[in-house]
Specification:
Layout: H1 3-11, H2 14-36, E1 44-47, E2 53-57, H3 64-73, H4 75-78, H5 95-111, E3 114-121, E4 124-134, E5 139-146, H6 155-168, E6 175-181, H7 185-193, E7 197-208, E8 211-221, H8 222-226
Parallel strand pairs: 5-6
Antiparallel strand pairs: 1-2, 2-3, 3-4, 4-5, 6-8, 7-8
Helix pairs in contact: 2-5
Length: 227
């Protein structure tokens, strides 16, 4: 039997035809879901123990200047542990870069795959938190950064707890993980204070700061969160 004839024989199977049709229609189905869904969103305020007001909200297109200033100001603390892109730090923080990030956040929110929020402290842009969601498995992976100049005692913890409360509450997740570079001691301490537990080390997990580095896997579950 020739290759063409063999291919036609396989395609003639109704089950195969349906599977192929579903595969090619998946992007259209996602578009329809995005158009008809409010998506993932979080907009909540809480007062930290230090007295500062912490506001967690969706990103806005107009956040670009404040985001750029904060990221450039905190470069030494962020860049060594940030996923490498091959571009300079300045070129990663243009208005266009923020617009792309904003669009990705909106799209991910509508698809139910990404919860992206801006952290404000007393009305000032102070950082970001992202939660990538695997809805079918009810789990997520989180990442956070906070401007050192606005990270008053407890403000980052308040922001992190607000996101986790939303993840284990309205979103219905049962597990949230966070990869932390083994060199990032500050982030490890933060994860532990937030209730995450170190589960092990993932060799060469990500390229950060221009180098392939090991990352510790930190995680917490809904049952631990409720204790």
């Amino acid at each position: 039997m020739s290759e063409a004839a063999g291919r036609l024989r396989v395609l003639a199977d109704p089950g195969v035809a349906v599977s192929i049709a579903r595969f090619h229609l998946r992007p259209l189905r996602r578009l329809a879901q995005a158009a008809g869904s409010a998506g993932l969103a979080l907009d909540v305020t809480e007062v930290a123990p230090c007295g500062s007001t912490v506001h967690v909200r969706p990103p806005r297109l107009t956040d670009a200047p404040a985001w750029r200033r904060a990221r450039l100001r905190n470069r030494e603390a962020i860049e060594p542990f940030w996923v490498s892109t091959g571009r300079g730090w300045g070129s990663q923080h243009t208005d266009r870069a923020w617009a792309e990030h904003w669009l990705t956040a909106r799209w991910g929110a509508r698809l139910g795959t990404l919860l992206s929020v801006v952290i404000e402290v007393d009305g000032r842009f102070a950082g970001q938190c992202e939660l990538r969601v695997e809805e079918h498995d009810r789990r997520g992976e989180a990442g956070i950064w906070v401007d050192a100049g606005l990270a008053e005692p407890g403000t980052a913890l308040v922001a992190g707890r607000l996101v986790l409360a939303h993840a284990f509450g309205p979103l219905g997740l049962v597990r949230v993980a966070a990869p932390v570079s083994v060199q990032n001691e500050r982030a490890a301490r933060f994860a532990a204070r937030l209730g995450f537990v170190r589960e092990g080390t993932m060799a060469g997990y990500l390229t950060v700061g221009g180098q392939r580095r090991d990352h510790d896997l930190w995680a917490t579950t809904v049952d631990s969160w409720r204790l």
